[in-house]
Amino acid sequence: MSGTVPVVRSVDALREQVFAWKAEGLRVGLVPTMGALHHGHLSLVDAIATKVDRVVVSIFVNPTQFGEGEDFDTYPRTEEEDRKKLATTPASLVYAPNASEMYPTGFATKVSVGGISDRFEGALRPGHFDGVATVVSKLLLQCLPDVAIFGEKDFQQLAVIRRFVADLNIPVEIMGGTLIREEDGLAASSRNAYLNAEERQVAGLFNVILKGLIAAVSSGTALRQAEEDASNRLLAAGFKAVDYVSVVDPDSLDVLERLDRPARVIAVARIGSVRLLDNMAIDID
What we know:
The protein is an alpha/beta fold. It folds into two domains: 7-177, HUPs (Rossmann fold); 190-282, Pantoate-beta-alanine ligase, C-terminal domain (Pantoate--beta-alanine Ligase, Chain: A,domain 2, 2-Layer Sandwich), CATH 3.30.1300. The chain has helices at 11-23, 39-48, 79-86, 99-102, 121-124, 128-143, 155-167, 197-203, 206-218, 223-237, and strands spanning 7-8, 28-33, 54-59, 93-95, 147-151, 173-177, 241-248, 263-271, 274-282. The strands form two sheets. A six-stranded parallel beta sheet has the order 1-4-3-2-5-6. Strands 7-8-9 form a three-stranded antiparallel beta sheet, with helices on one face. Helix 3 (79-86) links the parallel strand 3 (54-59) and strand 4. Helix 6 packs across helix 7 and helix 9 (206-218) runs antiparallel to helix 10 (223-237). The radius of gyration is 19 Å and the shape is globular. The N and C termini lie far apart (45 Å).
């Protein structure tokens, strides 16, 4: 395939195409993104294409999930390049609305998810998950796909989305897409482009240190001690701050007191101006 994937910019045009596909008996998948696509995003398109007949990729930099002082204004917007990349995948259509299409004059509704969104990213970025839950609810209802997929890199986000989709009876299957890593193990992210060469080298140690935590807790080290050790190792490696390193239940995100079930380590560390997110599964015998 060459060129770019076709694009629509209104809810009406999106629904017209999706309804036409469904009238043919085709299953439709949705891959919500904020653009600046990398191979992690493209892997989501490939993954969902195994379950559906047509794939819609949305591109919208959502202002309501950015807090004061965050990078909304500088977040990369590369729609033409993104559409060229998508032409190498099974993507069928790009949905790229503008802000007034998503949030028309008088817009006054917010989707807020209690509990699971209050901790970690929710505590550090007030209002972030309200913005995520609201825009994802809108995208799901605008497209009405059979399946939607979200990457596991943003592990708490995926858990929040699964919670409100179940709570609101939105008729869509939510898939988790495997976290894609660079050659040195750094989780793929659009924001990795902000790192200079020295910062990028340090960033590659993030996953190594989390693997060390998993080895430690699997050998019997107490969870809080292992978390503290990993935080100290990150700081010693050159990260300027560690927001959290926590071993949690993968469904509820409750902090675990002991490793008595499969778990997840979730972590955020800062280097330069960038917050890096990562997470890894912890299996038990």
